[in-house]
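Example record for the data management plan.
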Amino acid sequence: MSTHDPRFFTFRQLMELDACTRCGECVAWCPTFAEKPELDAITPLRKIEAVRRFVYQQNGLWARLFRSRPPDRAALQDHSAGTYDCTLCGRCGTVCPVHIDTRHLWIAMRETMVRQGVYPGSLDHLREMVTTHYNISGDPNENRLIWAENLPEVPEGVGGKERAEVVYFVGCVASFYPRSYSVPQSLVEVMERAGTDYMTLGGEEWCCGFPLIIAGMGEAAVESVYHNVEAVRRTGATRLVATCPSCYHTWKHDYPRIIGEPLGFEVLHATELLEGIVGDLPLKPLEQTVTYHDPCDLGRTSGIYDAPRNVVRAIPGVTLVEMEHHHEYALCCGGGGDVEMADKTLTEAVAQRRIVQARETGAKVLLSACQQCERTLMGAARREKVRVRVMDVVELVARQMAAESAD
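Corresponding structural encoding:
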């Protein structure tokens, strides 16, 4: 079977390859091409043209009459560079006049690159970490609850229960990267105050598989998917909550497809959970102007825009202002699509543009609902010396909770 056999793409994707009108509308909205214009292969237009050419060379009329031609290696390298220098933010799909589902198309292209061995070498290390250590950092997976050590008191829900109504799926970033520890700490504090019956999985939580799926290495994530589903089912939980939008999207949309059946429990993002309980929390006023950054995997990819904004507006005194690009047109933070592993400088350049948009609002606090966005934008704020505090929505709610009154 040829490496660009049409069977590697869905019927819809083959139609999308042919449906592209070459209007170029997507080019102006691509955040990585804006920062790396010398690599024309990044643009959605060129990626589609390249795959159409590869498929035709190997499966077109002339290939059937005579013989197929293998793709030129230099052309493959160029296409691979453009495909992996994409944050999978989905802005191109939002503005596409023929509604091409670009994000899934780019992932399918990455899968063909993996089959041909033309992809960033750093992804081999990622695959090894996830399949042998069950996380993206390579740390011992039994240390997944290390973030809880700084809590004033470790509650029963953190590693002390075998059954609960809600399972909190913490995710690799919040579990192993100290800059993000305060996100799970904050959600735990909020759930404790709200009286939520929750638990964490500790070392039984494995990487959700999202980094491998979007790298084009989804087959290597299947073991983790089945393990995680069974781990949650054993708890008897009716809901799973994730603070990471990528974990959330993977559980909500990819897991049922991979296992071929419903999960048997509801999947929520933390902001959806907070939306339902924030009205019952004692919150101190915050007389500040804040702005909100839509994470790509929560907004464009999963369609959740209102919940985080409703939570923010529930805090007394807060003034929420929008950046130049928001909701479905929001600019990516630069930290998605595994781009940071392939080109860290490109990630930083995209983040710089977003932090400038935040500065232009005059907000003192930049909020998001994604640990990766928080890490990326915090780094950009420091490099650009922008005086804005970067926080997760969960962190802000925990910070504004009034102290419990003494009996």
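Summary line stored alongside the record: The first strand starts at residue 166 and ends at 169.
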